[in-house]
Write a structure and sequence with these properties.
It contains ten helices and nine strands. It is an alpha/beta fold and 273 residues long. Bound molecules: manganese (II) ion. Manganese (II) ion binds next to loops.
Length: 273
């Protein structure tokens, strides 16, 4: 098995200007998928606005026609658009958050893809970090069992300190996985967040080992790999050393433009993966 490459596509107009290589709508996916395949990408990661955006009846033939795999599905719109958090102290709001992710797990699962929990983890509520973490653990447990039931991992992403104070390092998610006790809980290693939080990115990936489920490929400044100062060679050496065979998915700003971001991503993948 080898490492696969993907790029992110956002379907939520609210995140225009966010770190996604492409922004489009459902109608724009057909020409975009054709272009990705022509360039040589094996996969695509989608950031939907609502669960209904991930419609297997629509996306399955579209992906198959273009020979693309769905690498993962983001849930960040749950927070950005709908203000839903899996650690919300309000039980009704928390249940809505769990339902939003659960619906995406079902739909992504039908397309052979896992979902990501990133910003929906929330941050410490006024009652403190430990009660917030307890609520997050409960929600992650429910969603890990949902993921396992459709044969998928649940990708949990540590975020840098400016975005959350709950899960900041890869080791925090490994500890959460142990506490929750569900094998489906896997680590999403985002190299941009890791550049801020980890002592040594390659070391953290080696320590993560088989618990690594997905990688967001980004340079130190959230531009495409090669446009910042993160040393990518030791990171890819670590990924190969642990036998990682998932996606490195470019979650980056389309700067100087989307084409340049895609070319830099492909170059890094061809040279190092
Ligand atoms: Mn990320």
């Amino acid at each position: 098995m080898s490492i696969s490459s993907a790029v992110t596509v956002a379907l939520a107009p609210e995140v225009q200007g966010g770190p996604f290589v492409h922004h489009t709508n459902l109608k724009g996916l057909d020409p975009l998928f054709a272009r990705l395949r022509k360039l040589g990408f094996p996969g695509v990661e989608i950031f939907p606005r609502t669960p209904e955006d991930i419609d297997p009846a629509f996306l399955k033939p579209l992906l198959e026609n273009h020979g693309l795999r769905l690498a993962a599905v983001g849930t960040g719109a749950g927070w950005v658009v709908h203000k839903l958090r899996l650690s919300d102290p309000d039980a009704t709001r928390r249940a809505c958050a769990v339902e939003f992710v659960r619906a995406l797990i079902q739909r992504a699962g039908a397309l052979g893809a896992p979902v990501i929990i990133g910003s929906m983890q929330g941050k410490s509520d006024p009652d403190g970090k430990e009660p917030t973490m307890a609520r997050l653990r409960e929600s992650v447990g429910i969603l890990a069992r949902e993921s396992a039931a459709v044969g998928q991992k649940l990708l949990v992403e540590p975020l840098n300190r400016y975005e959350s104070d709950l899960l900041n390092r890869v080791g925090d998610v490994c500890a959460l996985a142990d506490e929750v006790g569900e094998k489906a809980v896997s680590v999403l290693a985002d190299l941009f967040h890791m550049n801020i939080e980890e002592t040594d990115i390659a070391r953290a990936l080696l320590d993560c080992g088989a618990q690594l489920g997905h990688v967001h490929l980004a340079d130190s400044n959230r531009l495409a790999a090669g446009f910042g100062h993160t040393a990518m060679a030791p990171i890819f050496a670590a990924l190969k050393s642990i036998g990682y065979s998932g996606f490195v998915s470019a979650e980056v700003f389309p700067r100087p433009d989307a084409d340049a971001a895609m070319m830099a991503t492909l170059k890094t993948w061809f040279e190092l993966a």
